Amino acid sequence: MKMTREQLYRRIQQAEPGEMAKLEAKITVCPWRQTYHIQPVTGLLNDPNGFSFYQGYYHLFYQWFPLGTEHGMKYWYHTRSDNLVDWENVGIAIEPGSPYDSHGAYSGSALEKEGQLYLIYTGNTRDENWIRHPYQCLAVMDKHHKVTKYEHPVISDVPPGYTEHFRDPKVWKHQELYYCVIGAQRTDETGCAVLYQSSDLLHWQFLGEIGTGLPTFGYMWECPDYFELDGQGVLMFSPQGIQAEEDRYQNIFQCGYLLGKLLDLETRQFDHGGFHELDRGFDFYAPQTMDSPDGRRILVAWMGLPDLAYPTDDSGWAHCLTIPRQLSIQGSRVIQQPVSEMAQLRRVEKGLRAQGTLSSECRSFAGFQGTAYELECEISLDDAHFAGIEFRANDTEKTVIQYDRLQRKLILDRSQSGAALPEINGTIRQCSLDTDVIQLRMFVDSSSVEIFVNEGLEVFTSRIFPSRDSIDIRFFAHGGRADFQAVLWNY
């Protein structure tokens, strides 16, 4: 049953007696709780926030509504890790309820300054007519994880020419100055990103809009992130209101990047190529990146989308985050690969191996099964029409990744994955890929799969909801022959 507005905008202290305990009890018996992904202790998780390194730990916060699986009163929930793999739940970092975040502490970012971690975020408020008024707020976390909110916003007003859809500040330092990119909507209801500058993180000057070649690309740009990588500029954002084009833009909302020359911070001009989607799967949104101490640019995203229902909703929780991914540039593309630390989850150093030639058949191999694992597989198509892998499978369920040699397309099919999803969520995602050798690196968990294709050239990220006994892995070729070799590490 859907919550009322009053129920959605309660704080934890306003929960009914026993309400949290009931949620926790339902979650305990849910078959889809993840093994190695960040997930909410109760309620709903969405955007990753404040991804940073501070005092020897990676810190990763996320948007959290603790009392249900709809989008209600948002907190910042705090996790930390010393290796990007094993994440510790620290607890609530930013609690809403002050005059400038009365209806939620929305998304933002983090930056270390003078031994403290500065958290800049959007404070969400609503007036008596339920009209939104956003503020860009600041909190500071010390080395003991104590968070102190500043009393007043650091950016109080929306500049002329923009609506109240003005949020998600991402901050970085360039030389001696700080810059902040914010997602915005113009008054003509088109999306864009704007730029601010500060010398101290407390006083911000509005510089203006980032000049891109996309003046009418969607009605809102959420969660923008600008960074520089391998001598090029990358503007990453999640545009809303993009129409589907063949295999592109299939999800309810999109997520991608512009790659080009370095952003001119004086003119705000950004010369770039076309918009590329970051992910080809069903469930990927609102990514955020950070610079690791060893110089890697690392990305984490929300493995979900706004305005969609998922089978875990009935169990009192919703969504998770992706595994961390290292970014690099290859030609005109941003490449994503799992961070090397993921290998620490392998139970054994040497994985279980299988190889062979498949001839119009589907085969299983001893030991190739599981619910949480890493699977590497190379498939070389001879004359097969289709070749691929069925996983999280039993007699009636399976998720399928396959290559269509004639169409030159890679296809992810979750139409028989398990618990049914609403039609709007989709069952097929595919992309063009002109090759006869497919390299797949798959990270499967209790209710998700992340597939890195040909060393990160493409990625498919998706939630799936199979039965507990759907553990089989099968390799197949249809309409001819294909060679394969695979290695499995259980987690």
UniProtKB/TrEMBL annotation:
Domain Glycosyl hydrolase family 32 C-terminal positions: 358-485
PANTHER family the record matches: BETA-FRUCTOSIDASE (PTHR43101:SF1)
Keywords associated with the record: Carbohydrate metabolism, Cytoplasm, Glycosidase, Hydrolase
Domain Glycosyl hydrolase family 32 N-terminal: 37-338
Source organism per UniProt: Paenibacillus sp. AN1007
SUPFAM superfamilies: Arabinanase/levansucrase/invertase, Concanavalin A-like lectins/glucanases
UniProt keyword annotation of Cytoplasm present: yes
Enzyme Commission number(s) of this protein: 3.2.1.26
Subcellular compartments: Cytoplasm
GO molecular function list: beta-fructofuranosidase activity
Pfam families tied to this protein: Glyco_hydro_32C, Glyco_hydro_32N
Source lineage: Bacteria, Bacillati, Bacillota, Bacilli, Bacillales
Protein name listed in UniProt: Sucrose-6-phosphate hydrolase
